[in-house]
């Protein structure tokens, strides 16, 4: 066996590990509907917040662990909040978002219809972290989601791919490595810059008419890199750098979605711009 072939599987493991270390381990993954406190299908949106919020986890995340901070934050402010699991691979529990992203987008489409049916809402708002901020764009663009979604808020979304601080740039030096990643974890392969999935997603423009887009990025991101690649271009887009809101905030890729209340405040502003208040370092106490 040629020496380079011996590193193909370790390299794939390295790619997985680089993503996995950014997610906290949990003792047990609870069933969302039973234990999370959100996904309450009896919740009816109020006049103040007429659209349910659907939370879309990131790669190697799930519908509970990714949202232990943001879901209660939004619930406490009167929103009906829902989250889903998507992108499951056979035999891989808890860590989701690894399946083909176009199929994950179809799962999101079904879940949004379920939420709309239960709540009676004509449209939902989507808030996604990492892959969860990018994947819904496929739903909006190709699966009819634009008619059912008012806004998409992406927290550290890899809209144009994720180099994982340059790690994916090494793949061409190992013949067969990209094919191996694609065969074992297609959701990761779809997020490599220049992939067929991303080429299709971004062809003809980043956005679709009728949807309000917000991107919240951090300059300390080590996964969706370079961080400026997270930004979208379009007529109804707000690209926000976290450090412009609070220069002292050092949150990286994971913390911006899991626990950063400054980010949470800006998410709430994006969901209800008519009642937005200035986001500052003090928003961490809000």
TrEMBL record:
InterPro entries per UniProt: AB_hydrolase_fold, Lipase_EstA/Esterase_EstB
Q: For this UniProt record, give its keywords in alphabetical order, as a comma-separated list.
A: Hydrolase, Signal
Q: Does the keyword Hydrolase apply?
A: yes
Bilayer-spanning residue ranges = none
- What highest taxon heads this organism's lineage? Bacteria
Q: What is the residue range of the signal peptide feature?
A: 1-30
| UniProt cross-references to Pfam families, sorted A to Z | Lipase_2
Question: Cross-referenced Gene3D superfamilies, in alphabetical order?
Answer: alpha/beta hydrolase
GO term, biological process aspect, one:
lipid catabolic process
**UniProt-recorded Gene Ontology molecular function terms:** lipase activity
Query: What's the protein name?
Result: Triacylglycerol esterase/lipase EstA (Alpha/beta hydrolase family)
Which source organism?
Answer: Streptomyces murinus
